[in-house]
């Protein structure tokens, strides 16, 4: 029973409403048939009453004379006249002792026999207070199909009305469900922030559902403006925070590099041949930091003009890194789908793939395998780029500072590789997830894309 109820509840609204309308029509038709049968019965009773009133009552004098004079032939003819009605099948007359005086069915009922049939309608015949006997009338049985036949036109009209009601109800239900689907579509578009997919209803209905759709659509547009404004403010605030961190980190790095120069180049100390390599090394590091800082400060040139397939760009980066993989004896497994195009320029794609693979290669164990995959994400409007390697897991401090500029755990690292990835993905309205535990590190980048039809 619970399974049946669960199945019924799982049916679509269209089927539920159509079923409800069907049973309402069936109920109305059944009630109509029952009322018609009752009317037919009442009609039969009216005919009998009319027959008694017009034929028997109006001929009391003649009938009483037939009975008193035992004129059975005239009484028989009178009974035959009663059977001329479409509702009377047989007629008879019995005396006060239920003995048959006359009957139209002479084969079944003989004169002088005791009348014992209870299926007849009995009409007492009384004149001037004297009971002469009883008329017995056999009413024709009105079958159910006979009644339907007599009221065929009414039932045909009822059937046509029912079918017309179903058609009209189907149209109204279809339009109602269409508007509800539109409401659900707009809500899903709002959840996924696909504001361009929000559809404004253009129908002629002006009921509560239409008002609900119009109100929610207006709220969606207001919410869109509010979210875009908040996101813009959040981006500005975030950019200021990043700018502060970059400036602080850059100043700290340069200060550390200037420290030995202050000691080696001073009024009291003249650099000798042993000091020159240290001075040149410090100046070289300062120059490297300045170049990186200037590159970081340049406006982004990775914004796309048209969406791109990523497979050729990934293969190009893999070809450039092939020798590096060979030197460390690390293999690469790459699986890139071609059923999407990312909303990012070629330069941005190459920077992301290059930095991810370089970091994975440096962290990977020898003879291990790096896995790269790029496919459509289950989240609409995004592609998913994942790079996985086996190597030493990151500690909590490294995880907390992973995307901060100039933070690095490498001796020769600049600390800008992952920050560059973060910058590109962030400005492309994507996001990054990573996991590093049990000697396995995985970076997953959600990058906006367009589906290929």
UniProtKB/TrEMBL annotation:
Transmembrane segments: 20-37, 152-173
GO biological process, one term: phosphorelay signal transduction system
Keywords from the UniProt entry: ATP-binding, Kinase, Membrane, Nucleotide-binding, Transferase, Transmembrane, Transmembrane helix, Two-component regulatory system
Gene Ontology MF annotations: ATP binding; protein histidine kinase activity
Top enzyme category: transferase
Domain Histidine kinase: 249-451
The enzyme's E.C. designation: 2.7.13.3
Catalytic activity: ATP + protein L-histidine = ADP + protein N-phospho-L-histidine
Signal sequence interval, chain numbering: none
Matching Pfam families: HATPase_c
PROSITE patterns: HIS_KIN (PS50109)
InterPro entries per UniProt: HATPase_C_sf, HATPase_dom, His_kinase_dom, Sig_transdc_His_kin-like_C
Keyword match Transmembrane helix: yes
Claim: Transmembrane helix is one of the keywords in the record: yes
Protein name: histidine kinase
Source species of the chain: Sulfurospirillum barnesii (strain ATCC 700032 / DSM 10660 / SES-3)
